[in-house]
Amino acid sequence: MFRRSIYKSPVELSSMVTAGEVTAAALAEARSMIVPGATPLDLDAAAERVIRAAGGRPNFQLVPGYRHTLCVSVDDDVVHGIPGERPFRPGDIVSVDGGAEVDGWNGDSAFTVVLPDPERPEVVASRTELSRVTEQALWLGIATLARARHLNEVGAAMEEYLESEGDPSTGSGHRYGVLTDYVGHGIGRSMHEEPPVFNYRVDRRGPAVKPGLVVAIEPMIVGGSIDTFTRDDEWTVTTSDGSDAAHWEHSVAVHADGIWVLTAPDGGAAGLAPFGVRPSPIARSSRP
Ligand code: MG
Ligand code: MG
Q1: Given phi > 0 = left and psi -120 to 50 = alpha, else beta, which region is 256?
Q2: d(CA 126, CA 113)
Q3: Which domains, ranges and CATH numbers included, belong to the chain?
Q4: Of the candidates 221, 143, 156, which has an alpha carbon nearest to the alpha carbon of residue 182?
Q5: Buried b / exposed e across 54-76, counting CB within 10 Å, b at 16+?
Q6: Residues bordering ligand 1, an ion, CB closer than 5 Å
Q7: pLDDT value at position 4?
Q8: How do residues 226-273 score in pLDDT, each as one tens digit?
Q9: 13 CA distance to ligand 2 centroid (A)?
Q10: Cα(10) to centroid of ligand 2, in Å?
Q11: pLDDT for position 12
Q12: What does each C-alpha distance from 161 to 141, 147, 225, 227, 261 come to in angstroms?
């Protein structure tokens, strides 16, 4: 069987820009709707409308057996939550994951938000901190990719960062856990491609980071044990000890002029600025 290179050509890279933009727009729409009383199914329908209006297809619907546009994972659900009708409640920590396929190319991205709850400020504070740390791990991972020689430097940097956010009272990195059952991935013609993108240190260097590499980096961080189980719906991944979970993800392209975060409206400029990394736009191809 022909194995496609993990490195895309300049024309292929430019073909992925629109899928990233449509993914970002769909998730922004979903994000704007997360208020108490709204339901995950409301978000799902809105995200699908945005993707189809742009001429794309929700790529999660291309996964065998999955019929929705988004995964919406609440509280101790980490990833792969099926959108349902239970309304969001004050204090919920909500992770939303989605992607668009446009012209045969894919985007994939996720974010977490915490709903305000004046009656449970300590719960909101700890969940907000969990999401902040997870998002910070993502941007650190992307910044690391911008300078890395080999892909697995990304996971090593994220793990080191999470250890630094460990429990000061014990001096150890036990406050947060990084899921090891699920990892990031290459992305292109398919949503899930080689190579795997680890969120933690591994003993292999991974492929060379060079122009044409496009990966979805997606740390999944929990407030307790990293043990998970899959609910009876056969999709939703949940923490075994009931601890909270957060999930942030972006699709990122390495190209001749640098990196570009395909699923961030600004290419990642704001998220990368604290790391001294400036993303470079991908030149659009003028296809015949
Ligand atoms: Mg995703
Ligand atoms: Mg992904």
Answers
A1: alpha
A2: 12
A3: 10-275 (3.90.230.10)
A4: 221
A5: bebbbbbeebeeeebbbbbbbbb
A6: 97, 108, 110, 249
A7: 75
A8: 999 999 999 999 999 999 999 999 999 999 999 999 999 999 999 999
A9: 18
A10: 22
A11: 96
A12: 10, 16, 18, 21, 21
* Segment 176-185, tens digit of pLDDT: 999 999 999 9
Residue 131, pLDDT score: 96
Which bound ligand lies closest to the C-alpha atom of 23? Answer: 1
**Residue ranges in the chain whose pLDDT is less than 70:** 1-3, 166-174, 285-288
In angstroms, the CA 30 to CA 43 distance is 5
Strands (E), 146-244: 177-178, 184-186, 193-197, 214-217, 220-222, 228-230, 237-239
Longest dimension (CA), the chain: 62
Rg of the chain (C-alpha set): 18
Mean pLDDT of the chain: 94
Distance 285 CA to ligand 2 centre (A): 26
SS3 246: strand
**Residue 199 C-alpha to ligand 1 middle, in angstroms?**
14
